[in-house]
Task: structure prediction
Amino acid sequence: MTCTAQRKKVEVENTRTVAPLRKPDTNWLSVSDVEELSASIGQYGALSFDELTNISHAYAWNSALNNKAIALENIMREAGSDEEFIAYITEDINASKEMIGYGVAA
Result:
């Protein structure tokens, strides 16, 4: 089997702007997909990087170290979960991981 290099589809300008290098194949999109994409572009398309960051990045993102994962607990806090629920979910996840041996030292 022969591997062929995939054609580059986007380029990154100034580390913050992603620009397409070809027209999209919209045949894969439904009418409602196109409507929602158009609405989103209409609402957010003219905003600067900083404006978009202020809208989309709140407590959970700001609490994470640079280029590190955002803690699930902080995502739940940002979504309005109370500490009792967060503790329950965290304990359940940890118990599940332990049961399957994920992340447990041998």
Observations:
- The first helix runs from residue 31 to 44.
